[in-house]
Amino acid sequence: MTQILDNISLQPFNSFGIHALAKHFCKVTSLNEMQELLEWNKTNNHPLLVLGGGSNVLFTKDYDGLVLQNALKGIELVNEDNEYYFVKAMAGENWHQFVSHCVQQQYQGIENMSLIPGNIGASPMQNIGAYGVEIKDVFESLEAIQISDGSIVSFDNKACGFGYRESVFKHQLRNQFIILSVVVRLRKTPIFNISYGNIEQELMNMNVKQLTIQSIADAVIRIRQRKLPDPTKIGNAGSFFKNPIIPTVLYDELKKAYASIPGFAVQNGSHTKVPAAWLIEQTGWKGFRAGDAGCYPLQPLVLVNYGHATGLEIFNLSTQIIEKVKIEFGIELEREVNIY
Known about the structure:
3 domains; alpha+beta; Uridine Diphospho-n-acetylenolpyruvylglucosamine Reductase, domain 1; 8 helices; 4-stranded mixed β-sheet; Uridine Diphospho-n-acetylenolpyruvylglucosamine Reductase, domain 2; Uridine Diphospho-n-acetylenolpyruvylglucosamine Reductase, domain 3
């Protein structure tokens, strides 16, 4: 059986760079190892936390249980038809490296999601997305192992119950499955999406004359690198908060008081998505810093660890932001990051 380590610092395994101890820690590189570890834990009955890239977690205390690092690797083209390539990636593959692989192979559909931090396994859990594209738009299926009995279960798109940064794995099936692999469906004939954010402007700045999968990926990477801190230099987990979706009736009322409040119609116009970054900036948090916990000056949606902040300090800052936005706008921000 694979080695189980005791009292291991999780600092290298989370993008916030927060120091927290795991009572037990195990890196799993094969299905066989995972099944053995789950069997071992049935006997020992420790709380179980599955870590991938560690880019969507905030540790506010030590973890008194078993941390399983899912390091299953591999990418393969498993099928194709006249319209699509079906590409399978194991859960431990880095998301951006997978996107880059698909871009190089001329598989089209996920280039807008370039440079999203984290691993493949988290992509359907969070229904990750950026610049007008979400994983649900290209998702074909996944395989997961049931923690209780070690059985392998397949999920199609519908079974995952995708919503905005949501899936059944965050709610109804939380802590019941470990995702092993994901299959995405990518186009042979591109249908590009450059209407969201500043992609079109960036392509013009790059003097792109003809759209390609690579040029869109490059544009997204340039935008993200300008706006977002590199977690290898400044600890962060990307967007800390979800963009709130509110009834359009409420949005129209807010528009009367705050003429510049941006919004994007969703759900056939019955609701409006409001950028959390705008709400946070309007309440004075952009660039705020207390000790080493802060709100990133170039993108207030991102909370950062400038060096030695504790998870609790970052969590408390997020609570203050939520409270102030609620008082000012009557909108309650939700954390996108998982708190432990």
